[in-house]
Every structure is written in C-alpha cells, then in structure tokens.
Amino acid sequence: MTLHERVAVLVALGKHLQRVDDDYRRAVRHRTHYHNDWFTIENQEQAIRAIADQMLDAKQLQQWLQHYHIDDHIASKAVALVPAGNIPLVSFQDVLCIFAAGHRAIIKLSDKEPYLLPYLLQWLQRFDPRSAAYFQIVEQLQNYDAVIATGSNNSARYFEAYFGKVPHIIRRNRNGVALIEGQETPQQLQALGHDVFSYFGLGCRNVSKLYVPRAYDFQALLETLYNFRSIILHNKYKNNFDYNYALYILNRVPHLANGCILLVEDASLQSRIAVLHYAYYDAIEQAVADIAARESDIQCVVASDSQYIRRAIPFGTAQQPTPSDYADGVDTMQFLLSL
Q1: 305 CB neighbour count, 10 Å cutoff
Q2: Could you write out the DSSP letters of every residue in 213-233?
Q3: pTM for the full model?
Q4: Would you give the distance in Å from CA 38 to the centre of its chain?
Q5: What is the pLDDT of residues 222-237, one digit of tens each?
Q6: 44-55 burial: b if 16+ Cβ within 10 Å, else e
Q7: Which residues, including other chains, have CB under 8 Å from residue 120's CB and lie 6 or more apart?
Q8: Which runs of E-coded beta strand occur in 52-134?
C-alpha cells in the first residue's frame, strides 16, 4: 500500500467510528468492561471519540505527515509493540505511526485490554484487506527489528535489558500537571476536572498535580470538581478513595476533600488513585522552574495560556492528543523512519 492508500483507510476508519455504533462495537465494549472494570463503557467511548476526532481526522493527518518524508518504497521493518494497558486504546498512536510509516506492527496485547485494538484493526482490514499485512497480534514477541515498549519505571529496566540490543523506545512513568494562576474561570476549572478525572486519572496525561499560588483559595476548585461526583459510584474508585481518606485521617495528614477526590500538599508528581497533589509557589517563575527541572517526568502541562510554558495546552485537552503529541516527547515517527 502507498502512503496515500494507508491514509485513506485511516480516514475511513475515523469516519466510521464517528457515525456508526453497531452491535459489534457494543459487544466489544461490554466484553472489555466485563474483563476490566476500570474500562467502563463511557471511558471506552471517550477513547474512541478522541481517536476518531484527533488521530484519524483527514486534516490532522495531513498536517502531521507533511513534516516527514515517507518513501512508498521503504524497506518494511517489523516493530514489536508492548503497550501499557492503563487506559483504553493507549497504544493506538504507536499503531498509527507504525502503519503510516509503512512498517509492520507485531503486537503483544496487554492483559488489561485484549479486545478493543483488535476491533479497530479488523475494521481497517474491512476497509482495505491489504491492511492485514501490516499487523500481527502474538502471544510471544520474536523476529522483530525494533521495539516500542511502555511500562512503569520498574518494568522499563527489564525492557532495557531485554530489548536493549535492537533500536527501541522504552517509556516510563510520567504524569500531567496543571499550572493554576488563581483567576481561572468556572469553565476552565470544569475543563480541568476532565483532565483530572478522565479514565479515573489512570493515564499518563491525566493531571495528578497542581501548582497553585500561595494562599490559593481551593473552595471554587473543590466545588467544581464535585460536579464529577458520579465517579465515586464506581466500586474500585470508591475503594481507593475510602482507603486513602482513612489513611490520611489516621496518620493526621492535612488534606482537603469534597466527597470524590482528596487534595494533599505533596512534592511528588505521581498521586494515588482519587488523590490530587498540589504545591504552592510564591512567584509563577518558581513553578515554571520546577516544571522545567522535572520535564523528564512530566507528560503534559495544562494552563490557561502558554506564555509561561511554551508547550502548555489548554485546560480540558490533556486526554485529546493529536498525532504529533508524542509520549515522553520522543518523535515516534522519526524513530520509525530512521530504522
């Protein structure tokens, strides 16, 4: 397939996902939710919509691909893909890059998500049967030329040892942060709530820490985040909330609570489920400097504007990445084209 043909089939998939909700799709959603309770029907649909609107939009794809030279006669390589499985379809951007580059993806599915990605790949094959040659789902990885693997800081060490002899991208823990200036509108705070609560906060792009000005009044934020209180009806999320709430009370840890999330002053970027960390700053330059110093641990920064942080994105867009929003800031497409 030529690049033009591959893009055409991707756009066809995006249009299909936007307008069709068939019995097959509903069955896959229910099977996925039954298999993994964190992957609710709503969260799966959110992931599918984000992919259709941001990753598979014809204009977005063309704008993204115009930055690369992709030869239709490229020597196709086998790229092993080891996804994290923390949120629905988290590995789709890697699949997109491998397919667009003209390589073949050898995919070892996460035990947490064995159904959704095969569903999308089957639709690609329906739109153009030649697409099937670009994807292979396997139980054991072998005969690959490069690797893209995502996991925790601990698993990344094993990935480095196991895959270190071939070209690779190994991803580790990262988190999203938010820069709060204190004059945010109710609409911006509501949008921030989506960055915090989407996928129960399990994604590396979810906001897990706030930088707030000294003497910041949390009342408006807590009231806005309470709009997401239905999340507490999810049994696993509620168990985590109750456990952490009890832990902070027993250990006399100062905290703020609104019934669906706990706010704790903590230097760490990574927070527990149902917990949001915050840190005070006296001057905004202090927060900007800390964010810059911890860039290697930060996936994205949301803010009201980007005058302080060049790569900051608007509130509410953390879980709406475009094809060029590469995980860990590593240009996946450039890596693939250099093989």
Answers
A1: 10
A2: ETT---HHHHHHHGGGGGGGG
A3: 0.94
A4: 15
A5: 999 999 999 999 999 9
A6: bebbbebbbebb
A7: 13, 17, 51, 89, 92
A8: 78-82, 104-107
